[in-house]
Batch of 4 targets.
Target 1
Amino acid sequence: MTVALTTVLVMGLVAGAIPAVATAQTSQSGSVVGNPDITFATSSGTLSAGTTDELAISVVNRGLIIEHGPSQYEEEVMTARGLTFEIDDENAPIDVQTGQVSLGNFPTGSTEKTVSVTIPEDAEPGTYQLPVTYEYSHTRQLRYSSSGTTEGTDSTRTETGTITIRINDDARFEIIETNATTQVGDDNDISFTLRNTGSEVAKAASVNAESKSSSLTFESGDTSSTASVGDWEPGENRTITYRAALQSGSAARAYALDLVVNYDDSDGISRTSNPITTTVESLPEQSFAFSDVSSSLRVGEDGEVVGTVENTGPHTVRSVTIRPVDSSETVIPGEDSTAVGSLAPGESKSFRLPIEVTSEAEVGDKLLNVEVRYRDGDGDQRTYDQLDLLTTIGPDRDEFGLAVSDRTITVGKSRVVTVEVTNNLNETVTDIEARLFADDPLSAAGSDTSYIESLEPGESATLAFEVTASSAATAGSTYPISFDFRYTDSDGSTHLTDTFRKPLDAVQPQNSGVSPITLILGLGVVVAGGVAVVYWRRK
């Protein structure tokens, strides 16, 4: 023990001296000699590495009387005035956060103060003596008289005591590897490898992960999840895996996560480690974009919507399909979905969506809501449904375009009328049967039907029908001939068109001596057995 002693002689009744006049009167004179007797101890001297704790310091003043006297004078010489203490951490693997502690005037008895200490993760287990430097003033000798006057000798003392602490051989844990990245709007496995860096086995251990954000959740939808790892030997690594999800619309940033190990120590006492804070990285949400979208939709027809889909997300996706998710009684998807295949980040591919538009549909722009389905890197099927396709529905139109090259017919004569038929539809049609209708004074001179095997979109073919104008026809008048068509579409359905009307102008016969029929036969156009000759012209 180191003691610094300063002695001051104080005469009774001297002005300005330390008060030495007692209020109580004694029947005799004498002196009391003594001093405080201060010791320090801690009731929480067992600490764990890697923690911050409050160390409870017990301070006891037992006092020491060398020469006895009246009790009030004995108490005075045993009182430590202005008592302060400070713990020295220089020679121990701890960091005392609290500086000097003041107790004021401290008579005999005891009190308790707390001191904040931090024990590093790498603190060596063992027992340590911590010096406690304390300082106080006291009256060492107090002389008193029968008249009640006193005089004393004061001193200031600086002394050093000790407290004993022990750093336990606890299990301690640290993260040595992380593999924790998840994608916004998806769920992924995240894993952390922890090591027991202590010198004690952690029995029946479990690791609890606690998310600091409501956006990051685990399998159950909660922000925490616990994994059991069993007994955990010192120096042993354990990899703990959780299934984590980031809700759609979350920011792509790092999310804080606390890992806490719960275990039983070698004495069977339940322990909880300090939280180990780590982060979960995130990737932007998987997304897609459409471009170059166009449509060939018309009222009463089958058409299609075509465009390009791009993977604007961060990962390669497989088995991509585009699927219309809404339909009406007038706009009906021709297929449930159309396949695109795999798409790497930034890659684009074209797509086609067949659409049926009924005759009751309205002309104009229409938003077609679609979703993109795909499989992620884990093979799980996902859906991206934040897309619309802007399409335009055009007015209805004739299935076929008809053009008659020569609109004249001679009164009382017959002639071959050639009709160019063009497929106006967006699909190939087959088994096209054309029928001619004519009213008096016009009539079909031969067969009133003709046949085309198939027509692709925009393709044309020429049909020939022999038409007769009777002598009842009036030159200069116009008379109609009509056509309808029966055909089969690409789905195998049979359709009958509305009637097409084309005009023929009646003209006076010319006295050339050669009839139109003779001229036609001379050109090699033969009408035999009442079957019309078909001229083909492909565009």
Target 2
Amino acid sequence: MKAVVSRRAGAGTEVLEIADVDAPARPGPGQVTIEVTSFPVHPGDLQAVAAARPDSAGPVIAGAEATGVVVEAGPGVALTAGMRVTTFLIDGAWRQQITVDADRVVAVPDLLSDQVAAQMLINPVTVLMLRRAAQQHVSVGFDGVVLNNAAASAVGRLFTAGSAHHQIATISIVRSDDRADQLKQLFPEVPVISTQAPDWPDRIRAAAGGRPIPVALDPIGGVGSGDLLSLLSPGGSLVVYGLMAPEAIPLHAATLVHHDLALRGLNIGRWPLAPVEQRRSDLASATAIAQGLSAHFDVAAWYPLEEIRAAAAHVDRPGKVGTVLVTMDGTSR
């Protein structure tokens, strides 16, 4: 049985490989076994591959999200063999078959395409977590404006679309004029600021038009996070939910103290710790997002399993739009 593995920490373009692994155990109570048909390659997947870890006895299977078909269900599970499903936040999702707890599995609606099904959980649930974090500030949804950094990313675009639906004002921030032009076509009512312009902070303040900026959402970190902090209104929060920048965030305590600012991290890996009612609601909402905003689930490219290193390289390609997907059947699309 094939799986994507790494035998040491390092860049996905260098250490990911295809290996034969044992078949998963048969499902026990509350579990299902899934025949994986495709999976997305998220930046966080590659960060996990690159992270230092203790030597292990064997290869580590990569990936946290996959979609496929149920082949067997254990006792007490409503899902049945033959159902299209997707699963996420599991260890070692990138393999031909996986056995997982059914509470991490969602049935795929019949009319949902494979390309949407393959990416319908991690990104939408991240968007839901970000919206909850933003709405902790009472002005969000009223006169407050949320800064959405890396707004051309898959999560960034979903956040913009969802915010418009919930009447949350946002300003999109991107790193190039080309990206800005793309977003203006998608969301003509949402201000877009490119950091290519030397005066981009002033342009953001002008776009806010005197309204408070209580929250900035940032998947990058590093020096740019300091710039975002400087744009927040007193009492505002910078929410960092990614690690794309290699450098640390330059921050003096005085920045937080004098302006009553907060810096917090948000990690989807902690989502399983949420109350069960919240998790059920999030999975239902993620499915609704996938159905209602399917036009924003773009695919950057499909790769066959054997080209996993090329897929990893594509994730960081400048100008990429959408999510990189990998098929298990050895074909590209």
Target 3
Amino acid sequence: MTPAVSAVYDGYPPAARAFLLAIRQLVFETAANLPEVGALTETLKWAEPAYLTQATRSGTTIRLAWSPKRPEFASIFVSCQTSLIEDGRARYSDDLTFIGNREIRLPLSQPLPATPVRHCIAMALTYHKRKSAP
């Protein structure tokens, strides 16, 4: 983790930081289990931790965020130009809260629903590869 990314996580309240770091761990674990994804680039986009498949371009950017405007939630953001939220909503509307066409909103007061979140992460990390498949 770069010092800049670490500083963002360090600026979050403890509960949000722990929750988002658990999601971050899922991002890296999921990427490691998908050979087509390759190494991830961890950086900041819009002052939020972001994960890119820069080496292979297999997927779209994943951003993790917490906001004092909604302090009881953590969010996973993907590009609004993808169908990822629509696809996730079709599969996991009973397990996850999808906002608009770019956000998965997760309550900090509940355990991280790892299985559906992991699948949504995998779909994001392979979005371009799947989209261009014959």
Target 4
Amino acid sequence: MGVSYPGCPETFHEDQQFSRGQGQKGMSGDQHQKVHRIRRGDVIAVPAGAAHWCYNDGNEELIAVSVLDLNNQANQLDQNLRGFMLGGGQSRHGQERASRRYAGQSERSHEETFQNIFRGFDEELMAEAFNVPRETVRRMRQDSNRGLIVKCREDMRIMSPDQEEEEQSESSPRNGLEETFCNMKIKQNIELQREADVYTKQGGRIYIANQQKLPILQFLDMSAERGHLMPNALYTPHWSMTDNRVVYALRGELNAQVVDERGNTIMNERVRQGDMFVIPQFYATLMRAGNNGFEWVSFKSSSQPMKSPMAGSISVMRAMPVDVISNAHQISPREAEQLKMNRDPESMLLSPTRTSS
């Protein structure tokens, strides 16, 4: 994957021998900005307005989930999602042909049409700006039905660091002084079990990618969480103090409940692989994994997210005096103490005390 920053140097230089190996004899070695190797479990942060592309050179399908925050201060337009494409295109005629394969999509065909931005410029001016023949510009501007994902005519060999070298570089100590915009780290793997932020043997584990681990997130004001609940385990009832969340189910099943400020249940659903749901800021939520456990990734609208749990050793109940809890809920002091202490020492992930139905 490549992310292009304006004004940053081309730090990757391909020698002539590498270029000739692609059947391009006579061409000088290519130069380009850094190319990143991505793998399963990576979170990638792309700054607003930065051109980016990705190429799958593996032998497996790559599934990626993309989340954009239109409320971010970097967005000076309205709340409509816009993508400005430097290549590809989908004409109305081509989209209508494609939509016939899928029932119920004909109404969306017009909205999903697009052409790359070069098509809107004058051919002669473009040729002069790039100092290339008009025929080259004409091919860039012509209508395309290839869509957003295109098939390469032949395998591409793009110069990038070995995966082992890149992993060693990312794991080396950083003091922040060497973090400049041009070489800023843009990815963090959130699937490494040994680096979980929260772990309980019977509850599961959580890994959080925030601005401390991935400094570029402070510019995006976003973060991500990767979680794994063991069979029938619970994610303690809690609310988010800082952010809205979009949750994407990776594996397993989950019973998810969300409650608003009036005590109304606005969600009580069985969530399965491939489902996605939203948890607004301050809305209380409680989640219980199914018999086969549950794995998810959530994207948050804060680079430094904070949660307030309601049960467990670090909960709001634990912080309150027994008499306050007793009088607020009209229960005995003994019952209030049980509310405070019965989940000790567990915190965010709670081991099951009964099986799910």
